[in-house]
Design brief:
6-stranded mixed β-sheet; 6 strands; 153 residues; single chain; alpha/beta
Length: 153
């Protein structure tokens, strides 16, 4: 699945507020619910937190990819965020996270879920992409940089 099919300008959130992992996940869940009113923010939050309990989605280099399969979700949904300051996310390298890509997928789309996660992780493995995204000043700029970086990859 292409990044532009997952992401929208309204779910590209530059400088998302949140002083902890849970607060960031709550703010992400609320943003999703605002754009997709059929998805309850509490349910989204609880599913993301439940996935985090299995192991941190902080993949290192200041990046986290929180994700879950979600009942009632009809199509994959992505949320790209930068945070300031960086937040402890129990990442594999113990570095705080300031760049997140949250992914929700329909409950029964396991293969698509894994393939999409791999594509996102590959994109964020490029240090130049990470730095460009971190330098974004607005949500529109963050969205454009992400889409352009994915298209060039």
């Amino acid at each position: 699945m292409t990044l532009d099919a997952l992401l929208s300008p309204r779910l590209s959130l530059c400088h998302l507020a949140g002083s902890s992992k849970k607060k960031l996940l709550l703010n992400i869940a609320q943003a999703i619910s605002e754009q997709y009113p059929d998805l309850d923010s509490d349910t989204v939050f609880n599913q993301l937190v439940a996935r985090e309990r299995l192991g941190s989605t902080g993949i290192g280099e200041g990046v986290a990819i929180p994700h879950c399969r979600l009942p009632g979700c009809e199509k994959p949904i992505g949320v790209l965020c930068t945070t300031s300051p960086a937040v402890d996310f129990d990442a594999i390298d113990r570095q705080p996270v300031d760049l997140l890509f949250a992914l929700l997928v329909p409950e029964n789309s396991e293969q698509e879920h894994l393939e999409t996660l791999a594509e996102i992780a590959a994109l964020f493995s490029d240090s130049r992409v990470r730095e460009k995204l971190r330098e974004a000043d607005t949500s529109d700029e963050l969205y454009a940089l992400a889409i352009n970086s994915a298209a060039a990859a």
